[in-house]
C-alpha cells in the first residue's frame, strides 16, 4: 500500500522537514513511501483540531535543531520545552 503524499495542500516529501509550533525544534523525517499507517490522534488537543498521526521507525527521525529543547513525558512522548507541541512518540512497534 502506498502512503499518503499530501495533507491539506502540503506535499509530503521523501525527506520531509517539520518544526514544532514555535520553531525551536526542527526535525527531518525519512518518508520514502509517504505517510504510512495514518490515523486520527486521540489526545485531547488533536481531537479538537482533527489532527492526524502517522508512524515512522525511530531510525527515520533526525533532529536537526533544538535537541536540547525536547523533554520526555510519562508516555514516551518528546515535547518542545517552549511551546509544548508533541514532536514524536516512541512506540515499540515503530522501531
Automatic annotation (TrEMBL):
Keyword annotations: Metal-binding, Zinc
GO molecular function, one term: metal ion binding
Domain CENP-V/GFA: residue ranges: 16-95
Top-rank taxon: Bacteria
Ranges in a coiled coil: none
Protein's name according to its UniProt entry: Glutathione-dependent formaldehyde-activating, GFA
Family the UniProt entry places it in: Belongs to the Gfa family.
InterPro entries noted in UniProt: CENP-V/GFA, Mss4-like_sf
